[in-house]
Amino acid sequence: MCRFVIYKGTSPVQLSHLLTRPCHSIINQAFDSRLRLDHRRPINGDGFGVGWYDCMHDEELGCQPCIFTSVTPAWNNVNLVRLTEKIKSPLVFAHVRATTAGSLSLDNCHPWHFGKLMFMHNGGIAEFPKIKRRLQTYLSDELFNFVTGNTDSQWAFALFLSKFSTQELRQAMIETIASINEMTEAVNATEPSLMNFCVTDGESIIATRYINSRHDEAASLWFSSGTTFSEYADGGHYKMSKTDKRENIILIASEPLTFEKADWMEIRTNHMVVVTPKMNLLQVPIIDNYYVQPSDPEYGGRGIDFAAAKGFLSSRRDVNPIPETTPTETHSIAL
């Protein structure tokens, strides 16, 4: 069971305020989770990665993100602490890993990048060995050789790249999920796939909370937005503040980074979040065979046991999801 966090802001954040200083940062969650608890693998100690974009474009450096990964536990990596104190970025991806597929190696640490695109995944593709060969047939030689690891996640990124060559980010993500569904259905997968994918081109962000089931909840995913994200009390207690209607900061995370319930809203299952370059956040239903309409009797009846047993969801449902009358814009996309 893995987890990730995304930051996008109108001003760059010092990485330490996102990754190391908050008392419930993603690094602390890796060994002291309060919401998600995987009893099979109670800690995320199988490596980590952080990727970021430069504050200002530099022709010599290019537009691709910089990525730092390690197979050591994130909480025990002194180089990560040093880097977070000296780096600022307006767009950050961070991921901590507990191995479910693939070996312990740098090649298998999220996030990955291809050109200016950066990608990471939380979840798992059901019975991936049975569909791996077929997935590879979608790929050009360049994309086939791009994959250096042996996780379902990096192969999913390669599949996404094969769609992105002719589509925008959002449509490429829709087609990636549809192709994976088609392949797992063809082999009669015995359990659902959890596909919390996120991708960015350095300006826009796409993040999905998705499961190919009509009856189960997907792995948890939350967002928070406001004007400042800062420490309000000693001991790493942070909160999101809103001093006006502007959204200067957007955070997306597998588990909230603060203990302030009002700071966070739960993204609905089988929805996509789109963050635009102008800091608009859109929540988009992914309309396919696994989407349940609000008017359907099945709506609101998804079970939590599947995702909770794998450590992707709390076994308690004491936080309300985003209501249908959300302040974020909502659009529908059909597969």
Automatic annotation (TrEMBL):
Keywords: Glutamine amidotransferase. CDD domains: YafJ. SUPFAM superfamilies: N-terminal nucleophile aminohydrolases (Ntn hydrolases). The keyword S-adenosyl-L-methionine does not apply. This is Glutamine amidotransferase type-2 domain-containing protein. InterPro entries: EgtC-like, Gamma-glu_amide_hydrolase, GATase_2_dom, Ntn_hydrolases_N. Coiled coil: none annotated. It comes from Somion occarium. Residues 2-335 form the Glutamine amidotransferase type-2 domain.
